[in-house]
Write a structure and sequence with these properties.
Blueprint (H helix, E strand, L loop, with lengths): L1 H9 L2 E15 L13 E18 L6 E17 H5 L7 E15 L7 H10 L1 H19 L15 H6 L23
Antiparallel strand pairs: 1-4, 2-3, 3-4
Length: 189
């Protein structure tokens, strides 16, 4: 059923663009990416369509109306201590976190009237594919500018239908409760 709804929406939509709506970068105060670490960092990811809005705009010159569909899609990356992932203690040891919300904007073709269910299915299943290249570039750029190891963001994939209904990522990725100290590199003579 979802595939049919998505196809219905695809016939009625044209990509207009993708733009950054909001972003945030945080780094633990005790974490210095320039100091050699005694621990390995690993990456955790999140991605999901947060909201979909239809916006009707009118051309000031000729009065023609157009409908745009804006899909707000949020992405996240956090670098955490690898040994804490194994211990399932992901609240501790977060070295850095990058969060961003992008808007994927689509023109709803004139004289088409897709059902809301079709637009919702498209937003949940397809908008991520349009946003993902922008997210990958943004995350890699922030990593480079912050002196962090550059993370190769994996290809975008949807969770299985059963996982999508049962697990929804939290609104915000939790911040660590207490920072872990890094051992400073010692000079050898």
């Amino acid at each position: 059923m979802t595939a049919a709804l998505i196809q219905e929406a695809i016939k009625c939509l044209a990509v207009q663009g993708v733009y950054l709506r909001e972003s945030r970068f945080t780094q633990e105060p005790d974490f210095d990416p320039t100091i050699p670490r005694t621990f390995e960092l690993t990456a955790q990811y999140r991605a999901r369509a947060e909201a979909m809005h239809l916006v009707e705009i009118e051309d000031a010159e000729n009065g023609a109306k157009q409908t745009l569909m804006n899909v707000h899609f949020s992405c996240g990356l956090r670098l955490i201590e690898a040994d804490l992932v194994k211990k399932a203690n992901s609240e501790m040891g977060v070295a850095a976190e990058i969060m961003a919300t992008f808007v994927a904007q689509y023109l709803v073709m004139p004289d088409s009237c897709p059902r809301k269910e079709a637009l919702d299915a498209f937003a949940m299943n397809n908008a991520g594919y349009h946003v993902w290249p922008y997210w990958r570039e943004y995350a890699q750029s922030v990593c480079t500018r912050a002196g962090l190891p550059v993370v190769a963001i994996p290809m975008f994939t949807l969770p299985k239908e059963s996982q999508r209904k049962q697990t929804r990522p939290e609104k915000e990725i939790a911040k660590p409760k207490a920072p872990r100290k890094q051992k400073k590199a010692t000079e050898t003579k």
